[in-house]
Amino acid sequence: MNVFRLAGDLAHVFAIIILLLKIWKTRSCAGISGKSQVLFALVYLTRYLDLFTTYVSLYNSVMKVIFLASSGATVYLMYVKFKATYDHNHDSFRVEFLLVPCVLLSLLINHDFTVMEVLWTFSIYLESVAILPQLFMVSKTGEAESITSHYLFALGSYRALYLLNWIYRYFVESHYDLIAIFAGVVQTILYCDFFYLYITKVLKGKRLQLPA
Amino acid sequence: CKEPHIKDEL
């Protein structure tokens, strides 16, 4: 555990809490892509199956349970409790364009051809692109509420901080995982455009509105 | 012999 890794994890938890609180307080999930949230739930489900097979630390197990429970809660709030506020029409990204390539890639490029390892690899690949339906929704409506922007910024920062963690671990512990690094780089690149808008607009108190 | 792939991250 190093400072980048811890900061990354905290940013990740923070992002999820922001989102849950926003939905709960406003009693609405307007502007949030349910498809991205379902994909994230799938990411955690396929990655944290090892909760039952391998014990790393109390910290790891607790965080895994937090991610599983909070993503489950988010999906429940969006598709059951506050279903009426879910903006179907703007959430039109075709998820099969993400799921099919991730399944194929995880079958082809993995560390070991076992069920657990392929599922882990699938979750890593899927996580890197799971935000696309949300970014697509923002680009379609041309704007995002500031709370949604804070959520996206925290969620994007998490993987960027993990990149620093991997650089640190490579030099200090000689530990590296090419699949995670490759997917992490892709994931962070997808947020770059958003980071730019967030820093130039949202932090200056303006709404995040895309140029027409 | 191949070492098992370590997954200590989230």
UniProtKB/TrEMBL annotation, chain A:
GO biological process per UniProt: protein retention in ER lumen; protein transport; vesicle-mediated transport
Coiled coil, from the record: none
Regions crossing the membrane: 6-24, 62-80, 92-113, 119-139, 151-172, 178-199
Pfam families associated with the record: ER_lumen_recept (PF00810)
Membrane topology: Multi-pass membrane protein
GO cellular component: endoplasmic reticulum membrane
MF GO annotations: ER retention sequence binding
Family, as annotated: Belongs to the ERD2 family.
Name the UniProt record assigns to this protein: ER lumen protein-retaining receptor
